[in-house]
Amino acid sequence: MNAKLKKLIRPMYLSIRDVIRRKVIGVEPTLPVSSENRHIQFQRLGSKYGGWTFVETSSLNNSLIVSCGLGEDASFDIEFASKYNAKIIIVDPTPRAIEHFNGIISRIGKGKESDYRQNGCESIESYDLAGLFEEQLQLCGKALWNEVSTLRFYSPPNPSHVSHSVLNFQNNYATDTPYIEVQSITIDQLMNDFNIDVIDLIKLDIEGAEIEVIIDMLQKGIYPKQFLVEYDELSKPSRRSKERIELAHNALVNSGYILLCKDGINFTYLHSPITTVN
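and the corresponding structure tokens:
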């Protein structure tokens, strides 16, 4: 088999392998979507790669949201800020993400000049920043975690990728792979530093650390109106990832959240009671 054919077949093989591991070996988390989603008005913003689905509610106008995990695709954050005149607190300590954010700020007030690449690495010129003010996008260059400390931030197996991980699930949770060191911040410290009283929506795309952060937030009685969660460990299914994801999901449900939407490995939770736009 030639190299080109192997390259074409490999993604299909990996997909089939993951299905077998989840269904046959029993590592598929139980995360049922509520039937109430039939009465919900959903909205999706951002590129095909970096976009998110959330619930359209009356509280989103002039809201404040926390967006953890920027990478090099800020399409969701920018479109959300523009549509709702919202303020976005972006949390990401990754050097390439910080560089991407600084590029965005340098173009505030300028319009879109190119289409989205749809590959997770967007050009700054693909964002429509014409109607935004610098104050609407603020960066915290630390990792959201359940304690304040210095963390090992493990590099992805593919050096061309931007996303690092505290858990290093991409490398089977190993502790001997390349990493950088970053400072962490807890949700309550973040809220204090940015004078946040209420979080209308929080997006967690933080490469496995979402489990610890969700548990920490709920234990501290911090209940955003919406949780947008990427359960990254679903991309590397195992019994360990199943237990961790179900722990976070059950904690959310027991705290009054309803799972209303699955979009790949992205999940949308809304805190009840449900109040939507008519």
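(Above: one complete record from the training split.) The mean pLDDT is 89.
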